[in-house]
Structure formats: C-alpha cells, structure tokens
Amino acid sequence: MPDVATTRSHGGRTGRPPLTEHRRAEIRLEIARAAVHLFVGQGVAATTGEQIGAAAGVSARTVWRYFPNKESCVRPLLTAGIEAIASCLRDWPPGRPLDEALDRAFAAGTTLLAAPDGAPAWALVRLTRTEPGLRAVWLQARDDAEPAFARALAARAGLPADDLRPMTQAALLNAALRTAVEYHAWHTPVEETDTATAQAELAATLRSALAITARGFD
After folding, report:
1. pTM exceeds cut of 0.70
2. Looking at residue 50, what is its pLDDT?
3. Considering the domain boundaries, does residue 14 fall inside one?
4. Where residue 204 falls among pLDDT bands split at 50, 70, 90?
5. Which of 15, 39, 215 is nearest to 123 (CA)?
6. What is the SS3 assignment for 117-182?
7. Could you tell me which residue ranges the HTH tetR-type domain spans (predicted)?
8. 188-200 pLDDT, tens per residue?
9. Is residue 3 predicted with pLDDT exceeding 70?
10. Are 111 and 60 within one domain?
11. Exposed site from 22, 66, 69, 197, fewest CB < 10 Å?
12. What is the count of structural domains for the chain?
C-alpha cells in the first residue's frame, strides 16, 4: 500500500516524482555526449536513435522525447556558454575592450562548446562541415544566441532590445564567435590538443577575429 503522505504530496499520484529541470538538462547532455561519440566514431548516417539511447543509458523513446531527430541530439554541446557570455556582456565596463570581458569569461571556465568526455568538441564542429544535418543544428544554435547577446548589449547601453545598434553589435559578435570556433576546429589537430590548450588557443583566435571585426572594412 503506498504511503499516504507521499501520494498526497504528488497530487494523488503514485510512483516516482517528476524529474527536476536540472536532471532533465543532465539527461539531455548525456544523450548529446553519446551522440557525438557515435557520430565521430562511425558517422551520422550509420548511427541510430537506439544506439544513442543505449550509449547514454536510456531508451530510444527517451531520446525522441528530448530531441526531434538524431542530429539535434548534439545541440546541448553547441549552445554551451551562451548565457555566461551574455552575462559578461551585461557587466562589460564602459571604455574597456570587449576582449577583456570575454577573457574574464574564459578565465571563469566558460566554454563555447561543452566538450564531451573522451572526444574533443572540435571533432563535432569538424563534422558540421561535411554533415548537412549537423550544420543546420550548429547554425541554428548560433542564430539562437544572437538575441541573447543583443538583449545583454541593449541592457548595458540602456537601450531597447530591438534597437538597431545592439542588434547589429550582437550580429557582429556572433559572427566572430562562430568564425573563430570553426577556424580553430578546422585548423587544430584533435589528437595534438588537450582541452586547456584548446581553450587558450580558441581565446587567441577569438581575439584576432574581434580585432578584425573592430577594424571594419579597409
């Protein structure tokens, strides 16, 4: 017989309590890590939802509950760091270079990609160059970051979120971030770079991209 207090505490329902938002986020990340391991190891076409679920320790049904298709499973790895960077933009001191604000984000452990255990995140970005489905997920993830950056820049400047200036600045920043990540991924051998070195080299590439953006067109 179920415990009455337990039954009542869940609105009369029995069984396990619903998952917390934190646990749901963990499951999404576990599925994403499993997916990228399989995609890198055997290719996207050869990977099934059942394989992803088995590697993540969940059912295929759970995979499809969280993601509409197998390519979208990697999205949590591609959206890492968006809110942390937006927070740094809101706190960016007036009159100081933007790269200083982003350097603080990197120093605090912020990453532009959530590196899956045992498989460099850069391998996933490389796949977006040859896998159209992954490319679409990557570009959508970057596109979704832009409004967050625009809101942060607008708040910093005391402007409406739909003002042209923060929207344009956010677009430029977002393009610099995407280009820096792709350039670094495509020019750095996975087997020769550990995570700490990769982050330092990415930060340097990002600074270069921001400098180019700041100079504008010659």
Report:
1. yes
2. 96
3. no
4. confident
5. 39
6. CCCCHHHHHHHCCCCHHHHHHHHHHHHHHHHHHHHHHHHHHCCCCCCHHHHHHHHHHHHHHHHHHH
7. 25-85
8. 776 655 667 777 7
9. no
10. no
11. 22
12. 2
What span, in angstroms and rounded, lies between the C-alpha atoms of 188 and 203? Answer: 13
CATH number (domain holding residue 105): 1.10.357.10
Q: In Å, how far are 32, 73, 141, 155 from 39, measured between CA atoms?
A: 10, 11, 18, 39
Same domain? For 62 and 142 the reply is: no
Kindly report, residue by residue over 29-58, the tens digit of the pLDDT: 999 999 999 999 999 999 999 999 999 999
Are 89 and 189 found together in one domain? yes
Q: How far is residue 210 from each of residues 36, 81, 85, 86, 98, measured CA to CA in Å?
A: 29, 17, 14, 16, 8
Contact 124, 77 (CB under 8 A): yes
The CB-side HSE value for 121 (13 A sphere, CA atoms) comes to 24
Of 30, 50, 71, which residue is a domain's last? Answer: 71
Q: What's the domain range around 139?
A: 79-215
Are residues 62 and 107 both part of a single domain? no
> How much is the average pLDDT of 102-126?
74
CATH number for the domain including 31?
1.10.10.60
CA distances to 48, 139, 186, 197, 209 from 179, rounded to whole Å, are: 30, 11, 10, 19, 8
Q: In which residue are the tokens 């959206």 written? A: 79
Distance CA 74, CA 38 (A): 11
- The predicted pLDDT at position 172 comes to 92
* Domain assignment of residue 199, yes or no: yes
